[in-house]
Amino acid sequence: MNNEILVFAEQQAGKITRPTWEAVAAGQKIAADTGGSLTLAVLGDKSPALASELTAVEASGVVAVEAPSLAEYTPDGYAAALAKLIRARQPRYVVFSHTYQVRDFAPKLAAALGAGFISDCLGYRQQDGRLVFVRQVFQGKFNADVEFAGDPPYLVSFQAGSFREDAVKRAANAPVTTFAAAVSGEQVRTKPGERFREAKQAVDLTQAEIIVAVGRGIKAPENVDLARKLAEALGGEIGASRPICDGGWLPMDRQIGSSGQTVAPKLYVALGISGAIQHQVGMKGSRTVLAINKDREAPIFEVATYGVVGDLFELVPPLTEAVRKAKAG
């Protein structure tokens, strides 16, 4: 077993996903803290082309894992292919971003390897020469310290926003190697269906760089259009706290929080959101948070980069117009 840190680079529809870069940032930090080397792995039937997107990362190399059965994602195929790669390379840590896809196949992979898997971590710290991972419990009310027992490989996934994609260290021309996974058709017992969505026409807010979210301060369903216009002007998506979705004002796939999506956009605009802990769990990884709320004691101001105490109905329309003019000019 060597001191390699292997990062799973997720791809969808032939494109490297945004959460992958957060996983790379996590892997680079673990490698630096443990004196290990970093390798990225991407799966697919045409993975060398995808691997070329990753060569500008500061890493020892990129592995393109190939097999005809990996043309489309299946938990059987991905778990079998990665198990072969991990057994061949024997990395110490395997790092994932905690996405829907990873949640689908990583437990199966861990079971196949007889390995430990600590999921949905916020981060880690070094303690007496070992890594202690931190994850939330009881819907974000408490943080728990978790350590691996037994021998590597150790599998760990990080929650969206735990590491910043702009923290990825860049370099030139990380070498690409191929790995023939030789996953047979018999090993893939499932057939790929339509990609998972929480609702019809659902949006994956984890990929959004700008989100405008509304809470009960929006007062009535017809007022949601106020936030939607701002989101459109900014080129972003609209999200919501749980009461808005529970009330049917927006579909459930727009919900952000402990029982919704966990997001980490570059800009998060919170309109009329009080910011209870259940909501903060889902958005606290945002790079910049602008909060507008009439209640100066609202918890959202504790995590906001910029806070405006005021009436959103007076502030949002001119803000939307100013954004439109700035883009037009």
Q: Which structural category do the helix and sheet elements fall into? A: alpha/beta
What is the averaged pLDDT score?
Answer: 90
**Which fold name is given in CATH as the topology of the largest domain?**
Rossmann fold
Distance between the termini: 58 Å
Q: What's the story with the biggest beta sheet? A: 9 strands, mixed
- Strand percent estimate: 25-35%
- CATH superfamily annotation of the largest domain: HUPs
Q: How many whole angstroms does the radius of gyration measure?
A: 21 Å
User: CATH first level of the largest domain: which class?
Assistant: Alpha Beta
Folded structure, characterized:
The chain folds into 2 domains: 4-187, 3-Layer(aba) Sandwich (Rossmann fold); 205-328, Rossmann fold (3-Layer(aba) Sandwich), CATH 3.40.50.1220. The chain has 8 helices and 16 strands. It has helices at 18-34, 47-51, 75-89, 100-113, 224-234, 242-246, 277-283, 312-328; strands spanning 4-8, 11-12, 15-16, 37-44, 61-66, 93-97, 116-127, 130-137, 142-146, 154-158, 176-180, 210-214, 237-240, 267-271, 288-293, 306-309. Helix 2 (47-51) links the parallel strand 4 and strand 5 (61-66). The protein is of the alpha/beta class and 329 residues long. The chain has a 9-stranded mixed beta sheet, sandwiched between helices. Strands 13-12-14-15-16 form a 5-stranded parallel beta sheet. Strands 2-3 form a two-stranded antiparallel sheet. The termini are far apart.
